[in-house]
Amino acid sequence: MTEAELIQRKFPIGPFAASANITKTELDELIETIASAPEKYVQVTRKLGDSDLRKTYREGAWNVQQLVNHVADMQLLHFFRMKRALTESDYKEITLVNIEGWAHTADGLNSPVADSLQMFDAITRRFVHLMKSLNEKQHEISYYHPVRKMTLNQKQAIAMTAWHVKHHLEHIRIALELK
Question: Which CATH architecture has domain 33-175?
Fold first, then answer.
């Protein structure tokens, strides 16, 4: 695989880029992307067997099962970050986790995809409710992301969540050769 092909596999929708100005219409579209994501994951994983769940989108990458479990975990983390930002005035640097470590815990490797899909759906419904409730002042609450080396306001954090669910859905589609 060439370097260009590897980058395309790693970032099938491109890397995340935070837009400085997100309009109300764009924000609504981002929230809809997030709201509709759990059903898209259900559809793409509906009839998968164990061998399908072990497929990867590139050598050395997480398999489909790990990707689904990861997306549920990170949706919880994104929701948690927003709640902290809204309720703790001293929350200036986002909470980080060892995502590689999480992907390799017993539940990350082996828990049923159906459990993660239920978790993903429930958290997303709560998260979308919260996102839709934010006013303009709350949208501007920001924090620093030390891994990405950027400060994100809540609109940009919503954009990152929308990118994240689309990014890994494409990884699953590549692994299952659904493109």
Answer: Up-down Bundle (1.20)
**What is the rounded distance in angstroms from the CA atom of residue 5 to the CA atom of residue 3?**
5
- Domain residues of the chain, as ranges? 33-175
Sequence-distant (6+) residues with CB within 8 A of 58 are 1, 6, 9, 10, 174
Determine which helix (DSSP H) or strand (DSSP E) holds 34, and give its type and residue range: helix 24-45
Q: What is the pTM of this model?
A: 0.96
pLDDT by 10s per residue, the chain, length 179: 788 888 898 999 999 999 999 999 999 999 999 999 999 999 999 999 999 999 999 999 999 999 999 999 999 999 999 999 999 999 999 999 999 999 999 999 999 999 999 999 999 999 999 999 999 999 999 999 999 999 999 999 999 999 999 999 999 999 999 86
